[in-house]
Amino acid sequence: MTNKRSAVKRNNDALQTSVSKTKLEATILLTEPTNGKTLSTEDIIQDLNEKGIIFGIDRDKIKEMVQGSMYNQDIVIARGKPPINGDDAKVVYIFSDESDVSIPGTIGENGRIDYKTLNKIRNVRTGDLLIEIVPPTQGISGTDVYGNEIVAKKGNPVIIRKGKNVKEGKNGLKIYATRDGEVCFKDNTIYVNEVITIDGDIDNETGNIQFNGKVNIRGNVKSGFRVEADGDIEIFGVVEGATLISGGDIVVHRGIQGNGQAYLCSSGNFKSKYIENACIKSAGDVEADVILHSDITAQSGIIASGRKGLIVGGNIKAGKKVRAKVLGSNMGTSTVIEVGIDPGERDNYEQLKKEIEGVRKSIEDSKKAIDLLNKMAKQQQLAKDKEEILAKLLITHETLKKKYRTLTEEIQVLLKKFQNCRGGKIYASAVIYPGVRAVIGNSVRQIYDELHNSTLYVKDGEVTVGPYEK
Questions:
Q1: Of 33, 61, 123, 130, which has the maximum CB count within 10 A?
Q2: Is 270 within 8 Å of 264 (Cβ atoms)?
Q3: CA separation for the pair 78, 56 (Å, rounded)
Q4: CA 381: distance to chain centroid?
């Protein structure tokens, strides 16, 4: 470092002063006197002041130099205060900025890695805070050895551009989502996608998909994988033995080959080219060209439309109607068609039957235990622990009987409702083959002969065959 150096002679001593280029450091060099009196501390400070050096003077160091006769050495005797530059603005990501690629999956509670759950989609909800901006600071000014201010540099701001489906908070330092979807941050622009598109298959590369909006999948959904969406799910390939759960509609352009493992549940309508060996549940209609050996439940209707219009095998349950060209097959394939009862209520009915049976058995078991303890009590005084058991059993027994009565009342209400369900119909524009079991409300008809261009409906408590109704 090159210093500016000046010299002063006083009392036959030589005093040289230098100041760094930054003006943040001043040094002096004393030369051993040849004549006269040594410079005092005050003499040196006065000399520094005369040269304009007034800030950060280290009096103790000067005194030490004088007393210690520290000659022919450059000694720092004044230091300025360097400025503290301001911090640049920072962006705090409330969402995960990028996936942890060091772990190829999600670690479960048992410590095992789920290689199908990769969490690649950053889901957000409406109103979620996405990012928070910490503004730049002004910095703290410094002072040089001449007492002059050294202005600190201000921190640099950050510019975040707002894309679709986001908004700023009042102070402009917070950005929130205005829609459910996936938050994206690219080229300093933040936005929320309501629709995500997977260009290929759902497999080990993508992992399972869970999204707050609509999902478009250009490829297939491989066996063992899961797709969940709050919105619609649209698949342009084939669904294998996978699970799909949608808060909207599900559309499968090519079809479903479920291998007995596929489960697809839609809160809206469901449409597929064909359905084979799958379990389908829909809160609306289910529509396909061909339905083979599948369990289909629809709150509204099940329609086999298109060129073949075929339903063969499995259990087909619709709240209002089933419509097809062909029901069953000429091989007599067992095909159960149920209409006229809300499938959810029918499931509830079956569940109630199981629960009632379980409660009934518990009542019998508790009654046997009570009878045994009462018999023992007649023969001899029961021990205290046995008395406590008996008391608990009596309470449990009464509780079970009350529950049994409640469940029985609930199932009777459903049965009465089922008896009044006569509005459902089954339509077949071509043929209904033997092997089809038609259930409309509580009325049942097993088909033993081929029926052509037929409509099945309930009349006078029986399933009746009428002409085909368009």
A1: 130
A2: yes
A3: 5
A4: 62
Give the separation between CA 315 and CA 297, rounded to whole angstroms. Answer: 8
Distances (CA, A) of 233 to 193, 244, 265: 15, 8, 11
Amino acid code (one letter) for 23: K
Segment (H or E) for 337? strand 335-339
Residue length of the chain: 470
Rounded Cα distance between 275 and 411, Å, is: 33
DSSP class of 303: E
Q: In what order do the strands lie in the sheet with 74-79?
A: 4-10, 13-19, 25-31, 74-79
Kindly report whether the global pTM for this prediction surpasses the value 0.85.
Answer: no
Encode pLDDT of 182-211 as tens digits: 898 888 899 998 999 999 999 998 889 999
Nearest by Cα to 213 from 262, 154, 164, 162: 164
Element (H, E) at 45: helix 41-50
What is the Cα–Cα distance from 197 to 215, expressed in whole angstroms?
6
Rounded-to-integer distance, Cα 424 and Cα 441, Å: 7
DSSP bridge partners of 287: 271, 303
The predicted-structure confidence for 262-287, as pLDDT tens digits, reads as follows 999 999 999 999 999 999 999 999 99
Strand-pair partners of 133: 91
